Amino acid sequence: xxxxxFFPATVMPDSDWWHALWPDPxxxxxAVGIEPHxxxxxxxxxxxxxxxxxxxxxxxxxxxxxxxxxxxxxxxEQACQGNPYFHPVLGDARELPKLIGEPVDFVFIANTFHGVxxxxxxxxxxxxxxxxxxxxxxxxxxxxxxxxxxxxxxPRGPDTELRMEPDDVRQVxxxxxxxxxxxxxxxxxxxxAVFLKI
Length: 198
Description:
Blueprint: H1 15-21, H2 25-32, E1 40-43, H3 51-58, E2 63-67, H4 70-79, E3 86-90, H5 96-100, E4 104-110, H6 119-129, E5 130-141, E6 150-151, E7 154-155, H7 166-173, E8 178-185, E9 190-197
Parallel strand pairs: 1-2, 1-4, 2-3, 4-5
Antiparallel strand pairs: 5-9, 6-7, 8-9
């Protein structure tokens, strides 16, 4: 039985198909607008698949990798070992502002937002953690039937009814103090919705 403290339907997948789905995570980060010198949070970072290239891309900016799963956070730490700008944080994403302690330029979340019970509430926490003009990027599955989103010949991703189109995301994020800046394709089944703090 899944631990109820975690967001529903957001279990970290096996690394084989995760790497098959995201062979170039740095390209995803660049597409949503992450750049050198930025202070960035990898929210619900999982095993660090995006965190490691994030550390390299933003150098010498600081990176905070936040997750509630201690075992996954340890994997992210191992992936980023030796990077003096990397800061692992064990905690609840909804408490982001107090967990990182300083305003950041960018918050990135991949493949988790669909399972957040209070999406506007989480977006408010992100808004409070950002500097003026900061950005919030949400990488999500397009609303396609699960049987059509195959990786290594198997249907993958959350149940079809949990998936959100970019406009669905906009409707729950903008009330938290954001405006949708752009939507970019970042994979065969995913988009990145990038919001600007207003």
